[in-house]
From TrEMBL:
SUPFAM superfamilies: lambda repressor-like DNA-binding domains. GO terms for molecular function: DNA binding. Residues 24-64 form the HTH cro/C1-type domain. InterPro entries: Cro/C1-type_HTH, Lambda_DNA-bd_dom_sf. It comes from Clostridium beijerinckii (Clostridium MP). This is Transcriptional regulator with XRE-family HTH domain. Pfam families: HTH_3.
Length: 241
């Protein structure tokens, strides 16, 4: 597997802002070679230059020195977008719904493209955050079930794999279609509502969601009772032995 090259923030920021290393060096009063050394990670950026870089790009100092993640990149893009977006206030006249009189209000104009790009960056961040949470949940399940007794942790692997299979089934359902998204959403709401009730909270539900919640409750109770019977049978067998 090919290793992913890590980059420090300064390299990414220069590329994003289309800023040449030579120009950065000139504005900082250092040589081009010094900037190259920073980019390669051979030496850290001198602290005295961080405020200058922050002012140069209008970005927080924290991003320039460290090895940045995909989330960092999106955060930098978002800050850049906010710094450069077209925004201004203007006065508008509307009719007061209570008095019927015309009143003047101040509105803020933002370019539609800027609003879309801002929303799209948040969308990309949500994908990364969700992916990270899924990975953490699966790994946490493995760690929770891991029994450090010297044997191979097959049970832990099985539990983690079961969670992975749930996500795989969900992706297949969404990918192949055939079920309206609102129905899928209602099914999940039914499961969430069962958890809320179980934890002493309630939530408004539509008729279909209530049915899902009720079915889950009935099946949970059935499986709990079934498990109790298995335990009772095992205890009786032990007594006979």
């Amino acid at each position: 597997m090919k290793a992913v090259r890590t980059i420090i923030g300064l390299e990414y920021i220069c590329g994003l802002y289309n800023k040449k290393y030579t120009n950065v060096a000139e504005e900082l009063g250092v040589s081009r070679q010094v900037v190259s050394v920073w980019i390669k990670g051979t030496k850290p950026i001198a602290k005295k230059h961080l405020p200058k870089l922050s002012k140069m790009f209008n970005l927080p100092e924290e991003y320039f020195q460290r090895q940045i993640t995909e989330l960092d990149k999106l955060d930098i893009q978002k800050i850049k977008l906010h710094n450069e977006k077209t925004e201004f206030e203007y006065e508008d006249t509307i009719t007061d719904p209570d008095t019927g009189e015309e009143i003047t209000i101040t509105r803020t104009y933002i370019e539609e493209a800027d609003m879309f790009n801002d929303a799209y960056i948040d969308y990309e961040k949500n994908i990364i955050n969700l992916t990270n949470r899924i990975k953490e949940l699966i790994h946490d399940r493995f760690n929770d079930e891991y029994d450090d007794t010297g044997g191979l942790p097959y049970n832990a692997l099985s539990e983690a794999s079961n969670i992975l299979n749930l996500y795989e089934k969900l992706t297949k359902i969404i990918k192949h279609g055939g079920i309206f998204n609102n129905i899928i959403n209602d099914v999940f709401d039914g499961m969430l509502n069962y958890q809320h009730d179980f934890m002493g909270r309630s939530k408004n539900q539509n008729r279909f969601t209530k049915k899902v919640t009720k079915l889950i409750e009935q099946e949970q109770d059935r499986q709990i009772e079934e498990a109790k019977l298995w335990v009772t049978d095992d205890d009786e067998t032990d007594d006979l032995l």
